[in-house]
Amino acid sequence: MPKNPDAEKNNPCLKEQDLVHKCLNQNNYDNSQCELYFTNYKNCKDFWYRVQRDRRAHGKYPYLPEVADREHIKQEYMKTKVSG
Asked: Does the model's pTM come out above 0.70?
């Protein structure tokens, strides 16, 4: 569990961030060994930024969805990508 109890609420990419740190620790901070993790983390941040921007534009609050709703939002997004 993170030291900050609100960390997951405020950072939807906490898991990806933790994986980046773990990879860096395991590879003596050689960034080239962790490029996949960096890319995954960036994609996560980009995705949730777009979700927040869209929710703000449509007047939905909170702009960052609650933790319990995030998995459903990701699944809905994946359906549009697979069928689109």
From this structure: yes
